[in-house]
């Protein structure tokens, strides 16, 4: 080694410094490569739905020391972009009716202490080449879990009743649960009000034209559209139902991490 340094006209200390820097460079490249591989796995495992904030949280949970900025840079460099597409809106609330309207008891108080204390519900439009579809969803405000949902080709009282029945049978809540909706004709109908009475639920309704009064279920439908509906063209109603079932039951409720739940999925948060 000494003879080599003499021949190359370099000092021993300079040679060992070069060796050390080379080793550090190789170690850095290996870590970078492993990090990109893990980011790619988490991105694909979320079906291309997670951006850098959620992937950073998952990496830190696994023990990686990494910043959201670096994750964002690496995702950009490797073409990992969460699905975003054009938006469209179809009116799903018909408040031009003479049905009784309940007061806004919830009043944008979205903090509750346990599951099955407050449910929020709404209807959203699902485009399909075979014909229009409408999704009625019911969300538990504490766990952010979708406790009931129903897909149908008509926006009727039967649609929201089916979602409510499914939620009640699945969760069996105690009397006194607060049920919040908009003031659409489906939710104010005599049949729906009677079912709420049978289930011993209290009724709350948003103010006219104020989407913030029902922000949590609106947020769920926005996420659903961003992560599934806007990225998919449903050819048939059966295809739409299967995709929604997989998204709600397997991905959203069981797997998708939620910032309001300390980055846990609804079911994992409920279990803890």
Automatic annotation (TrEMBL):
Superkingdom in the source lineage: Bacteria
Classification via InterPro entries: HTH-like_dom, Integrase_cat-core, RNaseH-like_sf, RNaseH_sf, Transpos_IS3, Transposase_IS3/IS150/IS904
Domain (Integrase catalytic): residue spans on this chain: 111-272
SUPFAM superfamilies: Ribonuclease H-like (SSF53098)
Pfam families with a match to the protein in the record: HTH_21 (PF13276), rve (PF00665), rve_2 (PF13333)
Protein's job: Involved in the transposition of the insertion sequence.
Protein name: Transposase
């Amino acid at each position: 080694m000494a003879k080599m340094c003499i021949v190359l006209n370099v000092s021993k200390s300079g040679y060992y410094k070069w060796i050390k820097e080379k080793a550090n460079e190789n170690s850095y490249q290996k870590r970078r490569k492993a990090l990109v591989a893990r980011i790619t796995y988490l991105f694909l495992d979320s079906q291309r739905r997670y951006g850098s904030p959620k992937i950073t949280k998952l990496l830190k949970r696994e023990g990686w020391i990494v910043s959201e900025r670096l994750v964002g840079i690496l995702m950009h460099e490797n073409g990992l972009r969460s699905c975003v597409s054009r938006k469209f809106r179809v009116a799903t609330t018909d408040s031009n009716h003479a049905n009784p309207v309940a007061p806004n008891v919830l009043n944008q108080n979205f903090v509750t202490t346990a599951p099955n204390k407050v449910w929020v519900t709404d209807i959203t439009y699902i485009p399909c080449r075979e014909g229009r579809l409408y999704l009625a969803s019911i969300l538990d405000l504490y766990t952010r879990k979708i406790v009931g949902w129903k897909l149908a080709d008509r926006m009727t009282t039967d649609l929201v009743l089916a979602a409510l029945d499914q939620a009640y049978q699945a969760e069996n809540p105690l009397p006194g649960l607060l049920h919040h909706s908009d003031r659409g004709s489906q939710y104010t109908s005599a049949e729906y009000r009677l079912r709420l009475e049978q289930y011993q639920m209290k009724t709350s309704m948003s103010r006219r034209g104020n989407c913030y009064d029902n922000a949590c279920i609106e947020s769920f439908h926005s996420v659903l559209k961003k992560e599934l509906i806007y990225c998919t063209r449903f050819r048939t109603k059966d295809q739409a139902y299967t995709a929604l079932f997989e998204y709600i039951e397997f991905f959203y409720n069981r797997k998708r991490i939620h910032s309001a739940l300390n980055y846990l999925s609804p079911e994992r948060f409920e279990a803890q």
